[in-house]
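Working notes for the structural subgroup meeting. M.R. asked for a predicted model of this chain before we commit to crystallization trials. I am recording the input and output together here so anyone reviewing the notebook later can reproduce the run.

Input as submitted:
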Amino acid sequence: MSVRITILYDNRCRSSHLQEGWGFSALVEYEGATILFDTGGDAKAVSSNANKISVPFSVITHLLFSHRHWDHIAGFKEIVKKVSPAAALYVPKTFPWFLIRAGSSHLKKTKVVRSFEAIAPNIYSLVLKGGFWLYEQVLVLKTPEGLGIITGCAHPGIVQILKAAQQQLQTNISFVLGGFHQLFTPADRSYLVERPIA
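Returned structure, recorded in token form:
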């Protein structure tokens, strides 16, 4: 089955009828799961964009939030209420407790991910440390072509994220999408993959 990814919110948009702004949100469809990854920096804009491109929140089976920064969790409480109570919520450790509690009041399953775990067939959550008291969750898809990796900001470093995903699943990387924080990465560490998995 192919992967379908719809960008709901980003800082640049080619479509004049959609809203753009700081932050990121994507809808990921794979292996029967429909995953909302982050909710951007403007909940009204995310909801408006989803409505304009006919993406109903009711079809979402999983919600994943990469990390606690405002430009990835805007409107958390409002958007969580729009999805089915049967949807599962996954957040990284050190995610705000009051948001976890708000999610738990509406959703039947809320999970704090601490390292690496499967959340659905061929779909995984990877959590790495991204700074002082900040952990970031990454979505990893295992496809026939290799790993698909979706990041929020990649605070732990995109190189470290890719290496960790490969170490866990022993598979080559097919594609990477999302934020690539490389601003303070030395040039000699900016390569993406040392070698393919044999």
